[in-house]
Amino acid sequence: MLVDGFNRGISYLRLSITDRCNLHCIYCVPPYDERKLRHKDILRYEELLRVVRIAVKLGINKIRLTGGEPFVRKGVGEFVPMLTALKGLDDVSLTTNGVYLKDNLDMLKAAGITRINVSIDSLERERFKSITRFDYFNRVWEGIEKARDMGFSPIKLNVVIMKGVNDNEVLDFGRLAIEQPYYIRFIECMPIGLQANSLAFIPNPEIEKALVNRFGRLIAVSPGQNDGPARRFRFDGGEGEIGFISPISHCFCRDCNRLRLTANGMLLPCLLSDREVNIKDPLRRGCLDEELIEIFLKAVDLKPECHPLSLDNHRKVQRKMCSIGG
Ligand code: SAM
Hints:
Layout: E1 2-3, E2 9-10, E3 12-16, H1 45-57, E4 62-66, H2 76-84, E5 91-96, H3 101-110, E6 116-119, H4 125-132, H5 137-149, E7 155-160, E8 162-163, H6 170-179, E9 182-187, E10 200-201, H7 204-215, E11 218-220, E12 231-235, E13 241-245, E14 258-261, E15 266-268, E16 277-278, H8 280-284, H9 289-301
Parallel strand pairs: 3-4, 3-14, 4-5, 5-6, 6-7, 7-9, 9-13
Antiparallel strand pairs: 1-2, 8-10, 11-12, 12-13, 14-15, 15-16
């Protein structure tokens, strides 16, 4: 088992398989961001599988595919089954913006993936378009409903609420969690990359208060084995759940169990730090497994105790979220 300097066990790896995305969400991708990684700089699928095999040897048992947008990478339909077939992984899941979800559900199901996260910040077509800069709401929603009908569970809907942008939809998302079996995850907008800083941040306790005022008590749900940092609740009689992911108002670094691998082969110890360890160059030099193990140990060693954001210190982090994958 990988354990860092603050006694945290590391068992979760997020794999960003591409930096490209077919949406340009206002808080994630800078408006005219045309800088893309070159094809040759992106880890090939066989390289990703080698890294995951090493990670599993070291005790990683949970993987999440992310991007950019994972479904825009060519060959993902062949890669996913190879990944889920690896021995030692208890949980493989995926985060998507849902634009190509409908076309990929059969593949995901056949590969044994049952849990998905879909990012959707508005339930209204026009607002969805103004947040993502693309008119794909209907496609995304069809994908979510088809996933529900096919029995995917849980289906988590990631929602970033921003003041003056979509904060008037908090209660609509709350109602959705009452009427449908979706797990709504309110994620606090982090000041990361060029865009997010200028948007009005709303702390999750304000959202919680609005929901309770309208729908009554939120009943705490006991955390499950594969839970991330979300504090989970449900409304009495509700079909779904409400979760709060609050990196700023309720720092959860104490329980952080994750590493991230970027599409260009950088192992990141923390989403909100500029520290990174290059794994691509050694891979391409044909290094031995021992060297890759050392790289993992180094990344774990570099995990900071806590990220630098807080309600008092709302400073900006330089990285682009769209290239790390959340
Ligand atoms: N394309 C996929 C998707 O849309 O889910 C995966 C990548 S996306 C970067 C992963 C998650 O990061 C999304 O749920 C998105 O809302 C979230 N995200 C991006 N920028 C963020 C920010 N500044 N603060 C909080 N969450 C952010």
